[in-house]
Write a structure and sequence with these properties.
Helices cover about 35% and strands about 20% of the residues. The chain has about 170 residues and is α+β, with helices and mostly antiparallel strands. It is built from 3 helices and 6 strands; from the N terminus they run αααββββββ.
Length: about 170
């Protein structure tokens, strides 16, 4: 760029336009595309992770409900001479957030053997005189159980479908 001293300015418009630089500040189209691509990747990561957070939230609600159900059954037995409830109606006073006590919870009496892992995340099977088997979380057995053992067999959502669970009180 040619520098002019005072009084040495260009004499015509053509010479002036050739000797001045364009100082317009702005982004090039490549810079804009790069920023949009990065924003798209970030949005994709955020929206891709949302189902995982939602699934974990639902599983947390299920586990809280299972704890409340087992606690309710235990209190029922304490108040009713160690009698196991015959219907889920005894749980109606509980504040369950995921399961509906009347339709999703099934009670099985002493002579009923567990039928295997829960087949649905929307159902809970409650057994008395049972124990969870550590290496098979969806199954339970009566070996070594006493009258205080209450077991809930349920399922939670996982990446590959459902994962059977067994929780013992």
């Amino acid at each position: 760029m040619k520098w002019y001293s005072h009084g040495d300015e260009p004499t015509n418009a053509v010479e002036h336009s050739l000797n001045t630089t364009n100082n317009n500040a702005g982004f090039t189209i490549i810079e804009v595309i790069i920023v949009l691509a990065i924003a798209g990747v970030i949005l994709g990561l955020v929206f891709g992770a949302l189902p995982v957070f939602e699934r974990n939230g639902r599983n947390g609600q299920r586990k809280q409900d299972i704890g409340a159900i087992l606690d309710g059954v235990s209190r029922y037995e304490l108040n009713n001479s160690a009698q196991f409830p015959s219907s889920a109606g005894v749980l109606n006073s509980l504040n369950l957030t995921y399961y509906t006590a009347a339709t999703d919870v099934t009670f099985h009496d002493l002579n009923k053997s567990p039928q295997g892992p829960a087949a649905s995340v929307d159902a809970v099977d409650i057994y008395d005189y049972q124990r969870c088997v550590p290496d098979s979380p969806g199954l339970s057995t009566s070996t070594g159980a006493d009258y205080t053992d209450i077991v809930a067999i349920y399922a939670i959502e996982s990446v590959g479908g459902i994962s059977p669970q067994c929780r013992q009180l």
